[in-house]
Amino acid sequence: MHLFPLVLSYHSPIPIYSYFDLLLWVLRLRKRVRVVGRSMLPTLNPNDEVFVNLVAYRRARPKVGDIVLVQHPEQSHLKILKRITAVSPQNQLFLQGDNPLESNDSRHFGTVPASLVYGRVSSLFL
Amino acid sequence: MKNLTSMIKAWFPAEEAHAHCDGPCGVYDPADARIKAEAVLSMTKKILALEPPAGDDANAMAQYLNTMSRYIAIKEDQASKTKHELLVLWTDFFKPAHLEAYPDLHETFWNAAKLCSACKTGVSLENATALMEAVEKIHGMFWGAKGRDVPYYTAS
Asked: What's the ipTM?
């Protein structure tokens, strides 16, 4: 018996996609990506596919709790999925994996400007 | 909907998004290769300078062989490690875009990797010195690609 649960996750689950998401994907307002790696467990499993809302931050600012698709700040060809755990007034984002033991994130590469965000994960494609 | 999902997955493969644990930390430094290449040069010099004992003193001969074996083992090990460090820079750090600024990038790394092998299998002051020169050139390319002016130095 564990005194504490091994995984602490207070985040609400990501909804399953709807036909509306599919329509938005066809209209290129959603991007579909496949998860590689374990840093977003238990929220996202390796090989899960998600829809990313590419227009999520046209009117709103990124906020704590959002899972975002971001250009890696040091390797521009890499797109990474992380959760925002802090937002500075200058729109710098602190990103972390939900699985902190197996994640390489802002704890290593520092904060990331909001301009590197492609969009917010909106639904699961499964 | 499940059928539709699997059809879309099959027909329109999704791009990968990384949620990695250990891969893309993006921290590279040619200093790793330089330190190891320096060890190769140092061991090469020591091997060339080590005199075999005169006469037939078995104990002195054992000491000599032991020291020589240690020098050789370290030289080979460090040459392998230099090659590994260089290959990481070549294949992981440098991107096709860097070829524009450094058209001889592939040639430089290829020759440097071959020098590592030559230093590992042979004892040549010339090769070990050439390896250090190659590492210095790569140091310049690396920091140039990052747009930083980092002076080259050696520990020894």
From this structure: 0.80
CB contact set of A9 (below 8 Å; sequence gap of 6+): A42, A43, A98
Q: Which of A50, A73, A80 has the CB atom closest to B18's CB atom?
A: A80
Which one, of B20, B145, B30, B74, lies nearest residue A81 by Cα?
B20
Residues B107 and B147: their CA atoms lie apart, in Å, by 22
Half-sphere exposure for A75 (CA within 13 Å, toward CB): 19
CB A65 within 8 A of CB A11: yes
* B95 has a chain A CB within 8 A of its CB: yes
Q: How far is CA B19 from the centre of its chain?
A: 28
Chain A contact for B11 (CB, 8 A cutoff):
no
pLDDT digits (tens, 9 = 90+) for B75-99: 999 999 999 999 989 988 888 888 9
- The residue among B52, B45, B111 whose CA lies nearest residue B78 is B45
Rg (CA), chain A: 15
Give the minimum alpha-carbon distance from B155 to chain A in angstroms, rounded to a whole number: 28
> Closest residue of B to A19, CA-based?
B1
Is the Cβ of A95 closer than 8 Å to some Cβ of chain B?
no
Subunit contact A104:B20, Cβ cutoff 8 A = yes
Per-residue buried b or exposed e for A107-125, using 16+ beta carbons within 10 Å of the residue's own CB:
eebebbebebbbbbbbbbb
Does A11 have pLDDT greater than 80?
no
| Test the B interface: residue of A80, A105, A107, A112 with most B CBs within 10 Å | A80
